[in-house]
């Protein structure tokens, strides 16, 4: 039997019935069928302040951020995860603010990595969708910064699913986005 993994999924959409939520649900359902444990954080409904660039990461006991907000809960789960999945739409040609605050605080993992290799070698994936019909805009908007960030963290991407041409809630149903998201589980 294959080894089960602990997977953390972080969503970044404020639309519970949105397209990236549907992709995240398809992925997590496929993971659970395979026996993996999944912890999901919906960043849009959490209290995560933006990074203050104080560089005091992990200074306060074993807390990732000196400022005590919900990122510290996310960080504890990410630290023990085998795979971290980001799921979000593209907003105004970038990551939505709701997940960007979390991503900016991933800097704490980079700072901690300077002292230890605890976070290196972690697997990750990206699920994203956008209204534009040109997938290259998605590649520029979210894929490029995602790849750069995971390079700095020493993480390895198992894949990215970026689906263009979805604007209205439910539009993902007319694409293969959910199916592709679910198939990522085969790469774990």
Structural class: alpha/beta
Helix tally equals: 6
Number of strands: 5
| Strands ordered across the widest β-sheet | 2-1-3-4-5
- Give the overall average pLDDT: 92
State the distance separating the first and last CA atoms.
14 Å
Anisotropy-based shape: globular
Stretches where pLDDT is under 50 for at least 5 consecutive residues are none
Topology order in helix (H) and strand (E) letters = EHEHEHHEHEH
Short description:
By secondary structure, the protein is an alpha/beta fold. The protein is 36% helix and 18% strand.
Topology:
Elements: E1 6-11, H1 19-33, E2 37-42, H2 71-80, E3 83-89, H3 97-105, H4 107-113, E4 123-129, H5 135-153, E5 156-163, H6 177-183
Parallel strand pairs: 1-2, 1-3, 3-4, 4-5
Describe this structure in words.
It is globular, with a radius of gyration of 16 Å. The protein is of the alpha/beta class and 188 residues long. It starts with 5 loop residues before the first strand and ends in a 5-residue tail after the last helix. Helix 1 (19-33) runs parallel beside helix 6 (177-183). 36% of the residues lie in helices and 18% in strands. The chain has a 5-stranded parallel beta sheet, with helices on both faces. It has helices spanning 19-33, 71-80, 97-105, 107-113, 135-153, 177-183, and strands at residues 6-11, 37-42, 83-89, 123-129, 156-163. The protein contains 6 helices and 5 strands; from the N terminus they run E-H-E-H-E-H-H-E-H-E-H.
């Amino acid at each position: 039997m294959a080894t089960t993994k602990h997977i953390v999924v972080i969503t970044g959409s404020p639309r519970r019935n949105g397209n990236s939520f549907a992709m995240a649900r398809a992925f997590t359902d496929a993971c659970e069928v395979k026996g993996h444990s999944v912890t999901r954080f919906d960043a849009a409904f959490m209290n995560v302040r933006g990074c203050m660039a104080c560089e005091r990461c992990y200074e306060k006991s074993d807390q990732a951020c000196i400022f005590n907000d919900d990122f510290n809960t996310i960080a504890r789960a990410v630290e023990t995860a085998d795979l971290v999945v980001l799921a979000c739409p593209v907003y105004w040609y970038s990551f939505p603010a709701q997940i960007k605050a979390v991503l900016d605080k991933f800097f704490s993992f980079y700072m901690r990595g300077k002292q230890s290799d605890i976070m290196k070698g972690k697997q990750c994936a990206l699920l994203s969708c956008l209204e534009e019909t040109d997938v290259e805009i998605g590649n520029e908007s979210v894929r490029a910064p995602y790849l750069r960030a995971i390079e700095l963290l020493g993480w390895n991407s198992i894949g990215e699913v970026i689906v263009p041409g979805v604007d209205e809630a439910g539009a993902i149903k007319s694409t293969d986005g959910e199916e592709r998201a679910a198939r990522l589980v085969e790469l774990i």
